[in-house]
Write a structure and sequence with these properties.
The chain is of the alpha/beta class. It contains seven helices and ten strands. It has a six-stranded mixed sheet with strand order 6-7-8-3-9-10, with helices on both faces. A four-stranded antiparallel sheet has the order 2-1-4-5, covered by helices on one side. It binds adenosine-5'-triphosphate and magnesium ion. Magnesium ion (MG) binds next to helix 1.
C-alpha cells in the first residue's frame, strides 16, 4: 500500500452515499475525496444540508459508503458491519451533533458504559475525563439536569475517554455561547497538541474553524478545495 502510516491517518476516496428511499432518496455524498493528516486539527465547513454530518458518520465508520474506499491507519476499512464496529470502537471518538447521551445514566456512567462496550475497565478514567472537562462536580447528574454547554462537554468527555487516535466532532460548539465555545475549542486544541490526537471538526462558525490547522470546504456532497 502506498499510503504512509506516519503521514495520513484517514483517506476517503470517491465516496458516494445516498440517504432515504424511493422518491425521498437523496444522493448526499458525491464522489468525495478527503485526506486527514495524522495529528492535524481539521475543520470542515459548508452550508446546511451539504452532507457534513453524513460525511462524518461515514468517516466515523457508523455506516458504510455506497461506493468508494476508506483507509484508516493504512488499513482498508472492510465492508462488513462487525469489522467496522471493531475499528470504530478502537480508533474513533465521536461527538454527535445532538450529543446522543443516555438519559437514564448519570454523567460518569455515560462515560463508563462507553468504556465498557470497548472492553475497557479503566479505574478512575471516567472521573479523570470529567475533571479534564471541568465536570467533576456533575458526575452524578443526568443529562437532563445539565445545561447545554455541560452536556456538550460531557459528549466530548465521552469521546475522549478511550483515548482514540481520531476524534470526529459534529458542530461541537453549535449549542454553546461564545465563552463556552471558546473554552471547548481551547480544550480540543489542547487535546490535539498534548495527546497528539487527530481532530476532524464540522463547524458553521468561522471563529471556531480558525482554531484548526486547516479548513476544507464542502458543497453539494464533496470537498471543493483542491489539494485535499
Ligand atoms: N434519513 C434521511 N433520508 C433522506 N435524506 C436525508 C436523511 N438524512 C439527511 N438527509 C438529507 O441529506 C442531506 C445531507 O444531510 P446532513 O445532515 O449530512 O447535512 P449537514 O451538512 O450536516 O447539515 P447541517 O449543517 O444542517 O447539520 C440533506 O439534504 C438532508 O436533507
Ligand atoms: Mg449536520
Amino acid at each position: 500500500m502506498s499510503e504512509s502510516k506516519n503521514k495520513n491517518i484517514l483517506l476517503a476516496r470517491d465516496l458516494h452515499k445516498s440517504l432515504g428511499r424511493g422518491a425521498a432518496k437523496v444522493h448526499v455524498l458525491r464522489s468525495l475525496d478527503l485526506t486527514v493528516r495524522r495529528g492535524e486539527f481539521l475543520a470542515i465547513m459548508g452550508p446546511s444540508g451539504c452532507g457534513k454530518s453524513t460525511l462524518l458518520h461515514v468517516l466515523g465508520l457508523m455506516t458504510g459508503p455506497d461506493e468508494g474506499r476508506i483507509v484508516l491507519d493504512s488499513r482498508e476499512v472492510p465492508d462488513d458491519e462487525p469489522s467496522r464496529t471493531l475499528l470504530r470502537r478502537r480508533h474513533i471518538g465521536f461527538v454527535f451533533q445532538r450529543f446522543n447521551l443516555l438519559g437514564v445514566l448519570n454523567a460518569a456512567d455515560n462515560i463508563r458504559i462507553s468504556l465498557r462496550v470497548r472492553g475497557l475497565e479503566m479505574d478512575g478514567r471516567a472521573e479523570q475525563v470529567l475533571d479534564q472537562l471541568h465536570l467533576a462536580d456533575l458526575a452524578r447528574r443526568k443529562p437532563a439536569q445539565m445545561s447545554m454547554g455541560q452536556q456538550q462537554r460531557l459528549a466530548v468527555a465521552r469521546a475522549l475517554a478511550h483515548n482514540p487516535e481520531l476524534i470526529l466532532a459534529d458542530e461541537p460548539t453549535g449549542n454553546l455561547d461564545s465563552d463556552n465555545a471558546k473554552r471547548l475549542l481551547e480544550l480540543l486544541r489542547q487535546v490535539n497538541r498534548q495527546e497528539t490526537q487527530t481532530i476532524v471538526m464540522v463547524t458553521h462558525s468561522a471563529t471556531a474553524a480558525e482554531t484548526a490547522d486547516r479548513i476544507v470546504r464542502m458543497a453539494d456532497g464533496k470537498i471543493v478545495d483542491t489539494n485535499v
